[in-house]
Amino acid sequence: MSESRTDRTDVTDRTGAAESLADRAAALDAADELAERRELFTLDDDSVYLDGNSLGALPRHVPERIQDVISRQWGELRIRSWTEGGWWTAPERIGDRIAPLVGAGPGQIVVGDSTSVNVFKAVVAAVRLLDPAEPARDEILVDATTFPTDGYIARSAARMTGRPIVPLDPENLLGALGPRTAVVLVNHVDFRTGRLHDLPGITAAAHEAGALVVWDLCHSAGALPVGLDAHGVDLAVGCTYKYLNGGPGSPAFLYVAERHQARFDSPLPGWNAHTDPFAMAQDFAPADGAVRGRVGTPDILSMLALEASLDVWEGVRVEAVRAKSLALTDFFLECVEAYAPPGRVRSVTPAAHAERGSQVALRCAEAPAVMETLIARGVIGDLRRPDLLRFGFTPLYVGFADAERAARVLAEVLTEVPAGPPA
Fold first, then answer.
1. Rounded CA gap, 356 and 323, in Å?
2. Which pLDDT belongs to residue 9?
3. Which residues contact 160 (CB under 8 A, 6 or more apart)?
4. Which residues is 212 bridged to in the sheet?
5. Which is catalytic among the residues 241, 331, 391, 397?
6. Catalytic residue check, 143
7. Maximum CA pair distance of the chain?
8. Against a cut of 0.85, is the pTM above it?
9. How far apart, in Å, are the Cα atoms of 148 and each of 123, 199, 214, 218, 386?
10. Annotated catalytic residue, options 121, 294, 356, 390
């Protein structure tokens, strides 16, 4: 069958659009103040890595640093490294390095354990911070769209503390606050859609209602300004292996606002949180400050890999990261609109900057097959079943040419993967 004039025109239009967008991408990369940061990471020239919202790329210098930890600190100094190598103080020292990235002052963040464990500590501790003179204030409100572990942990914490749990959509949260609201657990950024929730507004409204708020920062720490101190957040948790590039399974962090530290009562009072750990006393006497959030022996290898990874943030303004993140996601959406066959994908990530994190989620009926083919073609995103293609943009190493290439390859894949029946 001969090619129709319409087909030839469509191909010409798409070719012209690709050339134009590729030129713009090159100009944007040339003007990018963060572009040189890309050289600090181990990346493949023949692929585009857009899965940093699940696992950040490896900073180039980390293997050498960890080799020193293994060979010299562990191999030669051995037990002396707890003091001479600074192992014992690593959870607070690294917490203070993360603090500026989430808008916290020193002494309020401790690093250790997983996000799930820290959610448990934070929710139970928040309940214990309540005024016992208000027994009717008992409900734990939890984001019904949250990452599953937060919901699992919140329900367990509710059972253990004898409190009812109320799951609800974040859009309905403000209307649900009232005299029974005790604690609110919310994700800052929705892990499926990339929607950014109103941390300042929700925190202020919860406080006005007499409640405390626990924020999960897993998809915002290292991607955008958070302002924990400025907005009066009570407690927060976050992982470090996504936008902070700490490595697979790197320890999470726990933020305890200074005003709550004297009464912070962790449900996991491990020996590391004791005021005099090596006294080996049978009775627990909590240490001062965020150190109360520690539990057992720190996981030193992953802890120090995280510390080394944080070097890539030296001299970086979080505001610049946020500006590039928004520009990248705007540009990617523009490229998808220009390249993709009509009707095959639809963005579920908010267009408004104030409501967007640093990822783009595209609804696609054939998402599993499309993502599998994309990865085979060198565009590494991820899938949220049943029908979401998820692309995470890490501004320290993702460029505009990456965004244009990803959208172009996506369009090619969509023309090859057969469209399913209409929903």
1. 12
2. 46
3. 124, 267
4. 183
5. 241
6. no
7. 87
8. yes
9. 15, 20, 16, 13, 16
10. 390
Retrieve residue 126's tokens: 């928040």
Q: Are 87 and 81 in contact (CB under 8 A)?
A: yes
C-beta neighbour count of 334 within 10 angstroms: 16
* 177-200 burial code (b ≥16 CB/10 A, e <16): beebbbbbbbbbbbbebbbbbbbe
Annotated catalytic, 243? no
3-state secondary structure of 407: helix
**Catalytic member of 51, 113, 190, 216:** 216
Q: What is the model's pLDDT at position 420?
A: 72
* 382-384 and 388-392 strand pairing: antiparallel
Q: Can you say whether the dihedral through the CA atoms of 55, 402, 32, 45 is positive or negative?
A: positive
Mark whether 390 is an active-site residue.
Answer: yes
Tell me the pLDDT tens digit for each residue of 54-69: 999 999 999 999 999 9
The structure tokens listed for 321 are 């990261």
From CA 143, how far away is CA 14, in angstroms rounded?
Answer: 42
Extract the tokens encoding 230: 């400025």
From 147, 243, 253, 400, active-site residue:
147
Q: Which two tokens stand for residue 289?
A: 């400050």
In order, the DSSP letters of 278-320 are GG--SS--BPSGGGGG--S---HHHHHHHHHHGGGGTT--HHH
Catalytic residue among 137, 163, 242, 405: 242
Give the DSSP per-residue string, 217-270: -TTTTTTS---TTTTT--EEEE-SSSTT---TT---EEEE-GGGGGG---SS--
Which residue shows structure tokens 């890490």?
Answer: 394
242 is catalytic: yes
147 noted as active-site residue = yes
